[in-house]
Amino acid sequence: MKIEILYSDLGYYYGDNGNVSYLLNCLKDAQVIYTDNTSIPYFVQNDDIDLVYMGSLSENKQLIAIERLSKYKDILKQRINENVIFLFTGNSLEILGKYIEDENNKIDCLGLYDFYTKRNLNSRINYLFKGKYEDIDIVGNKSQYSLIYSNDNNTFIQVDKGLGNNLEDKYEGIHDHNLFATYLLGPFLVLNPLFTQKIIKMINPNNELAYKKEIIDAYELRIKQMNNPKLDYSLHEH
Q1: Which residues contact 122 (CB under 8 A, 6 or more apart)?
Q2: What pLDDT shows up at residue 152?
Q3: Distance CA 19, CA 118 (A)
Q4: Fewer Cβ neighbours under 10 Å: the N or C end of the chain?
Q5: Cα separation, 18 vs 189, whole angstroms
Q6: Which domains are present in the chain?
Q7: How far apart are CA 107 and CA 99, in angstroms?
Q8: In 10 A of CB 166, how many CB atoms?
Q9: Per-position DSSP letters for 158-180, written without gaps between them
Q10: Any idea what DSSP says for residue 49?
């Protein structure tokens, strides 16, 4: 088993490192490759990679990641089509689209998927989220300056409560083959153990969740709390 942690030297935010820590607890026998932004990603030169993870970045660091990955976008798409697992959390998903646009700039991205990002740095949107992927409840929170607008069907999570990719979209994130990209922040894999279990079983059917009883008990309690009709899912702008 080989896991690549991509560009963590650019700084993961919002507790995204919790995803890495939990993965390594679940996959104790995995070889972990930390690729900094000055190095060629392992997945580019090798096809024996099982999972590639990338977390949230600052807006300036996004530019570096786009520049670094742009020369490898064809092989990135090839690995996706070969069913390598890719997990992008937070605003790292934005680099997969066509461009990011704000009031002053239009930044070309990798163009792997037919969506674009509209960013407003004067307004951050914060909210709780609950949705469903296949038969799995997905929960979390989002805090973002951007909304994405998609023209294809590569959707990830069907929205139950909270905001989708934009104010009208009933889906959140991008899903293609074994690529999963979501704006959901923090320790996404810790908060959603049934989804995490699906991922690690794809790598090796013998793998089990770390701290399985405790983490599923916490997840079930979280689902119960988020089903409370009095819970505030409204958008909060700052």
Answers
A1: none
A2: 77
A3: 27
A4: C
A5: 8
A6: 2-237 (3.40.50.880)
A7: 5
A8: 16
A9: EEEES--SSSS-SEEEEEETTEE
A10: -
